[in-house]
Specification:
The chain has about 250 residues and is mainly α. Helix content is about 70%, strand content about 5%. Helix 2 runs antiparallel to helix 3 and helix 3 packs parallel to helix 5. The protein is flat. The relative contact order is 0.15.
Length: about 250
Amino acid sequence: MFALDIAAHTGPWRDRHPAEKALLALGLLVCAVALPTWPAALLSGGAAAVLLAAARVPLVVVLRAARVPLLFVATSTIPLLVSMPAPARLAIDPAGLPLAAQTAGRSVAALTCLLLFTATTPLSDVLPRLHRLGIPPAVTEVAALTYRMLFLLVESVRAVRQAQAARLGFRTWRTAYRSLAGQAGAVFVRALHRARRLEEGLAVRGYTGSLAVQVAAHRVSVPFVAATTVLLGAIVTVSTGLVSPW
C-alpha cells in the first residue's frame, strides 16, 4: 500500500464519517481558493497542517506526498517573477512578486487541505458512498478498478526491479540503461497479464457492471461538525475583515 493509504487506514480518524472529513478539508479548500489570498490561504493551510498533526499523520508521509506537487508549484511560480523587456533579455518583474506570492500561497494551502482529506480518509470509504450523491455506478467502478490497477503496477515494477538487481542489472550505467528498457517491457506484459486475470476473476464471480460492497456504518459526530463550522466561519470572518492590498 502507499504511505497515504496506510496513514488513512491506521490513523485515529479512521472511524469518522467521510462526510465530516470532507466538510472540514473541502471547506478549508474553498476558503483558501475563494477568499482573499492573505490571510485566507495562510489560515486555511495552517489549520490543515495543524489538523494533520492532530490526526497523527507522520510528517515524513506528508512531505513525501507533497514533494512532487510542491516542485510543480515552484516551477509554475518562478516564471511569474521575470519578464522580457527586450528580445533575448530577462529581467526581474516587480509586479510579478505579488502574483507569484498569491499563486504559491493558494496552491500550497489547497495542497495541504487535500492532503488532510487524503491522509485521513480511505478511498474504500468514499467510493461506495458516492452513489447516494447521484454519481453513476460506472464512474465509481472505473475509479475503483483504476485504483486497484495502480497497486498491481507498483507491485510489478518492484518485482521486476528486484529480479534485475539480484542479477546485477544496475552494476554499471550501460547495464542500468539496458535493465530499464527491459523493465518497461516486462512491467507492461506483467501488468497486462494481471489485469486480464482480474477481469476473468470478476467475470467468474458474475460481475455485471456493479460490485456490491459492504460499507462500515459511521455515525456523524455533531460536535465535530459544529467545531468545523466554527472554524470555517472564523476563517471567513477574519479573511473578509482583513483584506490584503495584494
